[in-house]
Amino acid sequence: MRGAVIYAPGDVRFENLDDPEIINPTDAIIRTVATCVCGSDLWPYRGAEPIGDPHPMGHEYVGIVEEVGAEVTNVKPGQFVVGSFATSDNTCPNCRNGWQSNCLHREFMSTCQADYVRIPNAHGTLVATDEHPDAEAVPGLLAVSDVMGTGWYAALAAEVKPGSTAVVVGDGAVGLCGVIAAKELGAERIIAMSRHASRQTLALEFGATDIVSERGEEGVARVKDLTGGIGADSVLECVGTAESMRQALHSTRPGGNVGFVGVPHDVRVDGQELFFSHVGLRGGPAPVRAYLPDLIDRVLSGRISPGRVFDLTLPLDQVAEGYKAMDERRSVKALLKP
Amino acid sequence: MRGAVIYAPGDVRFENLDDPEIINPTDAIIRTVATCVCGSDLWPYRGAEPIGDPHPMGHEYVGIVEEVGAEVTNVKPGQFVVGSFATSDNTCPNCRNGWQSNCLHREFMSTCQADYVRIPNAHGTLVATDEHPDAEAVPGLLAVSDVMGTGWYAALAAEVKPGSTAVVVGDGAVGLCGVIAAKELGAERIIAMSRHASRQTLALEFGATDIVSERGEEGVARVKDLTGGIGADSVLECVGTAESMRQALHSTRPGGNVGFVGVPHDVRVDGQELFFSHVGLRGGPAPVRAYLPDLIDRVLSGRISPGRVFDLTLPLDQVAEGYKAMDERRSVKALLKP
């Protein structure tokens, strides 16, 4: 089969690779129907994370089950399945507590930009749709496997409640899905921080009520202006830099909540500042598995359209162009079709 | 009148001071019935916080109203009142959200180790009891004005729920009150981290089910042993050092919560570590005002006995000995009577 391999910053190649095989009885092999490039893939692509030896890339996927291990009974060959970027057995104590992305047997997916993918913990990770979805539903289902699930978690971690005010820091695919999530969870006012016209438009279409294009302390001041001087009830931090975290914390009202889902890079939170802010803080890799049935339903019923974050569709063999387009911000998110 | 003044580390003096007067129409003057020394008073006493010019001390109090400003209608002269270490108007947006200790007009109390005290924002801060309490109820009501209210907040911030497992880091008065709070909020298992026999005994009497005397990573390992290997649902951090915060974060299960109420000193939380832990973190000065009616009821009905944290009672003029006894850990908490 063929798949993406990263060699160095800016150097992603599409190569022949060994076909994946069942290794453990809880594995499945899927034929990829769609995969994509994640904002977090750009960290190594931009040289902001070490790469080490050349290795495959990709952790978002929907596909058709090809083969299952002996202990996989929840899905069967021929079914269309959605999974999560973090695999889980769905039975360990952390899974039972609702934190499947902290499963004691978790493996992070990392080989999905390829024709076929081995899914570890398939028995606890994959959810099949009742029937094969229409082609137009595929991007939304693909989004659910990571960015929509992550936006959903950001909104839950930020404790978005009906009637509340939410701020979304970051206008990438996760931030935009965070707008969808805040809307679905009943936020009355949703302030999207973005300075890119096309992303502002999409945020407004997804339910944002206000756009703040300023950044840093200027952006914080604008949020305060819009929230009676005290800040927002809930802030979704969807970037992962020290600056975006500071912006998120400072935009939150006393006693409000920040949900942070951008993998933090060089972020340190000052204990005394957090203390006097009364802000609650929770982050992490989203437990997407917990939300899959619900989010799949919302996509298939047409209630939400997170697939719209894909503004570029490429054949899988042009994966390198997907990275390049996102790195240059020509694309919010690139969908890849084998 | 007379009151405590701190001059330098280890140097607290009892001196003649000007009687307090009504300055604003929302002020009240109370005659102190009981006050005390707080663990946080030990930071400057130990030289761990700058002192600057000599200044009065003390932020915990119960007393009899002597005089009220024109806008104070909730209490009247002659009534016995309980307040909070942080004053609040109880009407600003932060107060209405339940964060009275972040009131837009907040003033922190700082002159309470004295015969008389001016209470700013008395209209939103003081709560009167129906009648003058018995002498034996006074220590409990005094505790409510800070340590019991703070332990309560720690348990709420750590999201203690019926049937859950809670860990309390810190065996000072706040930590011990945190044990009471965790018990009241329904925790099934309460692990108190303490290595002092008398404090262990009190923690057990307050409802702790287990004592862990180890500290640091050894203490964390013991907590993990007691919690099926994953850590506790809720951890109350009642110290405020980098070590105690680390111990708290590492003792919490994935997706659990840390409530931190020890004023952080040189605490920095690593964003990436917090991210992958999925732990929720919330701290701050407790919004004691929000809990006063409930906690006063619990004390007066005899349901809780937080007054037992006072293991030393001194006449106010021996305030310096109160500091010394606590500094040398001869006393958990010293009550002072004018």
UniProtKB/TrEMBL annotation, chains A, B:
This is IMP dehydrogenase. The keyword Repressor does not apply. One of its GO terms (molecular function) is oxidoreductase activity. Residues 10-336 form the Enoyl reductase (ER) domain. Keywords: Metal-binding, Oxidoreductase, Zinc. PANTHER family: DEHYDROGENASE, ZINC-CONTAINING, PUTATIVE (AFU_ORTHOLOGUE AFUA_2G02810)-RELATED, ZINC-TYPE ALCOHOL DEHYDROGENASE-LIKE. SMART domains: PKS_ER. The keyword Oxidoreductase applies. Its cofactor is Zn(2+). Belongs to the zinc-containing alcohol dehydrogenase family. Gene3D superfamilies: Medium-chain alcohol dehydrogenases, catalytic domain, NAD(P)-binding Rossmann-like Domain.
